[in-house]
Protein 1
Amino acid sequence: MTALFSKIFISPLYKGQILCRSHQDCDNNALTQQAFLNNLDQKLWSAAEFKSWFIDFDPVRAKATAFADSLSPAQAERAALSLISSKNPAELDRLRIDYPDQYQQLLALAQAFPSEFEEVEGFGDVSRGWVVKKIEDVIKKILVSKKYNQKTTFSESLVPVLDQGKSDIIGYHNDKAGVKVSIENPVIVFANHTCYMRLISYDFSAIQNVFAFRGEETDIYWTYLATYGKQGLTEYKGHFPDFLIKEIVVPSVELTELFGQVVKESFSKIAINDIENSFLAKTRDELLPKLLSGEV
C-alpha cells in the first residue's frame, strides 16, 4: 500500500473526498467495534454459562431437585433444559416449534448432564461420573517449530510472530508458519512468565516460551474456558509447568462437544472481528499520515 500511494498524485479537489471517505471508514470501523463489543458480550455469556454448567453444576442440581420432588426423567430433563436455555415452559414450546434444530441441540445438552452428585476430595460435591484431572492430562501440546525473536522478524511480512505480552505480535516473517490453524480449528496459546492466554484462529509462529495446545479429546472451547484462569501468577511471574499441574473437573467428551457446538458461533464471530479490526487499524495507520501531511 505504501508503494502504491507514493506513485499516485491526487488533486486537492479529491483530497477532501478522500478525507471524507476516511471519516466514513472510521464510522464503519466504529460499527465494527460495536459488533466486536456485542460479540465480547457473547464471550462473557459463554464464560458465565460455563461456570454455571461445569463449576456450579446447575443443570445437575436442577435434575437432582426434580427427582427429589418425585418428577419423571422427562420432567427432570425439562428442568435442566429450562435452566440451560433460560426459558420458561411456554418459551421452550415456542422454541421447539419455531427453531427445532436449536431446541434439539439444547435438549441433547440437557440430556448429557448427570442427575446425581458424588463427593470428591478437595472439590466437594461433583457431578457423578466426572473426573478430576491435571491439565497436562487433558491437553495435547502442539509443536511450534522454529522460534523467532525481535531481530529475526520484520515490521511487515506474511506470518505473524506471537509475543508473550498483550501486544500479541512482535513482528512477522516470510517462512512457513509454525502452527497452521483457522477460525474453524483454533488453538489455545499460553505465554510463559506473563501467563497470557488466548485463542488464536490464524496461522502463526512464536518467540521462545510461547506454547500452543488443544484438548486431547475435549472440545477446544470447553478446554479454553476450563483452563482459563488457572494460569495465575506467583509473585512476579508464572510458568507453563505450574499451569499444567493444576486440576480441573472433566465431564464426558460428548458433553464438552455439545457445549462447543453451543458457543462456537460466538467465538468464531469474535475471531472474524479481531482479524477485520487488525486490517482496518493497519489501513488507517498507513493512510492517515499521508493524508494529513499532504503526500496524497
Note: Confidence is low (pLDDT under 50) at residues 1-23.
Protein 2
Amino acid sequence: MLPKDYAVYGAIDAFAEFVVSTSAKPGWQGRVAQRWDREMAHLIEYQTSKGGFAGDRTALNYVYGFRTKARDLLEELPSGDPRRKVIDDLDSRLATPQVFTKADDRIPLNQSLKEFAEEAARLVIRGWKNWLDDLDAKWVLERAAMSTKAETTQKNYISRYRKAIEEEFERNEDVPEGALDEVFKVVKHIPKVTKSVNNDYGTTVRKQVRNLQLIENWKELVEVFNGFLVSDNPRLRLIGLMGVTGRRFFEVCVSGDFSLEIFEYPESHVTVKQKWVLRFIGQAKTKGREGTMSEETYNIPCLAPAKDVYNAFQWLRNSPEGEAWSQMNSRELNARVNNQINRYLRSHEDVQRLWPKGVKLTTKCLRSLYAEIAYKVFAPGTMAKAPYFAQILGHSVEDLNTALSYMDYVLDSSDEEAARNDMQALIDATNERDAAYGNPWSGNLDEDDDLKMAAKVAGDGMVIDDDDT
C-alpha cells in the first residue's frame, strides 16, 4: 500500500541511508532485498497513481536513482570502513523489476511461476510479522510485469500463479494450515479485469450459441471418411483419419500414434480386440493451455472399425508423403501442407454435396464434428456433453471453455434447443467458477509469451497454435 505522504526523492534518500546502516550487520543481504522489493512496489504504485505507465522512462530513471544514491553514500564512507565492501555486491542485490526490462530479457513465465510460489512458501514458513506486506510487494512487481498484456492474458497469468502456489504449498509439508487462504487474499484476480474478460467471452459464446450449425448429413459424411481410409491418395487418407478419430492435423502427421485396444476377460484370459476403440498417445500442446494428456495413452472412440483406422494410419506413415510430413515441425507443416489438405477437403465432390452450403469447412472443423458424433453414438446416456468431450479429446474435465469451443454443430434439428441449453449451462458454470477461483485455462497467450515457456512442446518440440489444424 502506497504511503499517503510518499515522495520519490525522499524514498530514494531513505533507502540509501537504510543500505548504509544495514550493511554493517550480518544478514544485510536479505534485509536490503526485502526493502528493495517494497521500494520498487511503492514506485510502481506511485507511477500508476499519477496516470503513468509503471515501466516508462521516468520510472526507470527513478530505479537508477535508488541504486546510485545508495552507492554514492557507501563511497563517501572512510576508506577503511568495511561497509564499502558492499558496493561491489550491491547491484546484484537490487534486481531490476521485470516491468523495467525489455521483453527479450525477461524471465520465462514458467520460471517466474516457480520462483514466486517458492518465495510465497518461504515467507509463510518463516512467519515474520510483516510477511504479508512482503508478499504484497512482490505481487505488485509481478502484476506490473504483466500489465501490458491483454486482459485475457492477465487473467490467465493470475490463475497460473495461484495454481503454482497451491501446488507448491501441497508439496511443502512445512507450510502451515490455512496459509493458502491468506496468500490468496494477496494473489487474487482483479474484479475489473475479470468482469471485462467475462463480458467479452460471454459475447463470443452467445454468438456461438446463436450460430450452431446443423449437419444433417453426418452419417453420410462418416461413410465418406471411412472410404478415405482405403484411398490410394495419402491426402485423403489423412483427412479420413482426422474425420474418424478427431485428432489434430499435427497429431496424425507427426506427434501421434495409435494402437489397438485389447480387452482380456479375467476368468478365461481370452483377449478381444475392441472394434470401435483405439489407444492414442501424442496429444499436442496448444498455446495458452497445457495438453493435459500429452504424455499419456488414452482410449478414443472411432467412427470406423479400429482395425481399419490402425491400418490406414500405418499406411499413411509409411507412404513417401507421410514420411516427409512426419519430419516437419508445426510451422513447416502448416505452411507447406495445411492449405493443400484443406483444398482437398473442400473440393471433394462427396464432401461438397453433403456439407451445408455457406458453412465454413477446414480440417479443424473435423475435430468438433467428430466430438459431436461420438457423443451421440457412444456416450453413456447419463453422461453430460462437456465431460465426454474432455474425455475423448484429451482435456481436463474442468476445462469448460475448451468444451464450449468445440460445440459448433448439432446433428438433428430437434437437438438445437438441448444444445443451446447445454452451452448456456456451461457458460453459467464457467462464470461461477471464474468468479470464485479464476480459470487457469482461459485465454490464449501471445506467441512471444508461449515461446518463453520451455516446457510447452508438442511431439518434435514445437508448440502448436490453437489455430493449427
Note: The mean pLDDT is 81.
